[in-house]
């Protein structure tokens, strides 16, 4: 950790202060950023211990007399200074079966179906939700649990009426939805205000429970249902 004194002007965000440090005192200070508008998801860090986008966090949000501590996301390995290696997330992404839609199926959707999945498309892949999730952060269950960002992607696919893929078995086994214990920390830090837990994870859990743990369905599958397999 290193301390710097930065002259602050009205309207400055934490990323501005980091840029000022780079241009005056530490030209080799590594930080990832791109849009400075809260849309590329690159500038994620922990600001006074709270995961957030440095380009969207105003310095005026903190008491004037106190210093601000900026650290890299803890859940991912540090490459240098504030830059972390988030490539694990892209590997998880590849494990998700993509949208499946045959050419001759009806391409129409109702507005309510569009509304239901629209918020999932706002994800900017900042990975702040992955950073704060204790399953990944404290227990390091990266092989077992895909994390909240990918539950959002899976929910977007599963709730899309045009999608013909069947991912329930993967959601349960490969992506480990059962590891989430609904603490809602991911929802709290999402800069896009996606209601990750209530709108994505809980419906996925309900679908898995209906499919694998409903006793009536189990009896049906073991008896009559079996005869109707195609
Ligand atoms: S609600 Fe689930 S996915 Fe979100 S932070 Fe908590 S354990 Fe992780
Ligand atoms: S769901 Fe929200 S917090 Fe998670 S990666 Fe997407 S935008 Fe970031
Ligand atoms: S620089 Fe793009 S989200 Fe912060």
Quick structural gist:
This protein is mainly α.
Tell me what you see in this structure.
By secondary structure, the protein is mainly alpha-helical. The protein folds into two domains: 14-84, Roll (Ubiquitin-like (UB roll)), CATH 3.10.20; 87-220, Fumarate Reductase Iron-sulfur Protein, Chain B, domain 2, CATH 1.10.1060. Helices cover 37% and strands 7% of the residues. It has eleven helices and five strands; from the N terminus they run αβββββαααααααααα. The protein has helices spanning 14-24, 87-94, 111-118, 128-132, 134-137, 148-158, 168-172, 185-189, 196-212, 215-222, 224-227, and strands at residues 44-47, 50-53, 70-71, 78-80, 83-84. A three-stranded antiparallel β-sheet has the order 2-1-3. Strands 4-5 form a two-stranded antiparallel ribbon. Strand 4 and strand 5 form a beta hairpin. Helix 6 (148-158) packs across helix 9. It is elongated. The chain starts with 13 loop residues before the first helix and ends with a helix. The mean pLDDT is 94. Bound molecules: iron/sulfur cluster (2 copies) and FE2/S2 (inorganic) cluster. One iron/sulfur cluster is lined by residues 123-129, 148-149, 152, 189-192, 194, 196.
